[in-house]
Amino acid sequence: MSGHEGLKRLIEEKKFLFFGGKGGVGKTTMAAATALWLADRGYDTLIIATDPTISLSATFEQKISETEVTPIKCSCKLSGLNINPKKAMGLFQSRMTGMLDGFSSLFGSELLSTPCTEEIAAFDQFVSYMQDTEHDKLVFDTAPTGHTLRELSMPFDWSGYIANQIKNRRELSEVLGFVYDEGMVEDLKEEKQRYDNAVRGLADSTVSAFTLVTLPEKLPIEESARAMEDLAGFGIKVPSLIINEVIPKEVLQGNWFLERRRATQDRYLEEIEERFQGLVKGQVPLLETDVYGVENLRKVGRHLYD
Ligand SMILES: Nc1ncnc2c1ncn2[C@@H]1O[C@H](COP(=O)(O)OP(=O)(O)OP(=O)(O)O)[C@@H](O)[C@H]1O
Ligand SMILES: [Mg+2]
Prior knowledge:
Layout: H1 3-13, E1 16-20, H2 27-40, E2 45-49, H3 55-60, E3 70-71, E4 78-82, H4 85-100, H5 104-112, H6 117-129, E5 137-141, H7 145-176, H8 182-203, E6 208-214, H9 218-233, E7 240-246, H10 256-275, E8 280-285, H11 293-305
Parallel strand pairs: 1-5, 1-6, 2-4, 2-5, 6-7, 7-8
Antiparallel strand pairs: 3-4
Helix pairs in contact: 2-11, 4-5, 4-6, 6-7, 7-8
């Protein structure tokens, strides 16, 4: 099976499509091109960025809201959302504050000031879209690898944390004669359930696919290998790899500089074949301009899937 066929089959079969990789390798571009390709073929598609920058808006050359799902102008069923962790935190904090009010004398205020609250908040938003039933496809343009992994680890920490709180609460409250509200524990259990489900969804290869984007260069390859290992630690298997910015052979035309660059890329392409066996692979050529707007994104989509 060719790379095109394999990648195409993957995005048509799965509902939740994640794009990860080192900073600047083309995650947003590949996620956007994929979302557009699917929408052009009639899938009702939502693209979600969990990145604090405005890259999604820039890529589609239109404002994509941080709070509401925004229709994207393409004569197709595509919409976008740019989750802003800073704003999401407000939502999260008010919910947590409400939930933990009764326990605040024991731990509430401390929990709410932990440095990772912002990341929990972004993940919290993201998790709610893992339960989406309104769209055929959800494409996630993730933040760079380290951040993504932290986001992914959050529900595990959360589950453990919440479970412990529930347990400790019982013992502590008995000791302190603290009357606790079963309803609150139920709320906490419900949260844990939500997070557990999201994690299960991420690792469930029947509905989710995590594609890594890389370049035929040393550092992006190393990062991809590490990201794959890290994801495997969470039970997430990476089925596919996109190699971006490959210099097309037709442009070489005896230019020593380009030939040198391409020869270097060829070495790394071989290394990729050896190190990432069993993954479906696709290549996207280095284009003559950067990739903005629907027409350019369609061009990338054709390179990936047609
Ligand atoms: N095949 C390509 N040919 C030419 N330009 C490209 C190609 N792929 C991506 N670009 C350009 O490279 C830049 C970085 O791409 P992109 O924003 O998609 O990367 P990213 O991985 O999302 O970055 P970040 O880690 O900052 O989120 C953009 O200006 C994009 O238009
Ligand atoms: Mg990006």
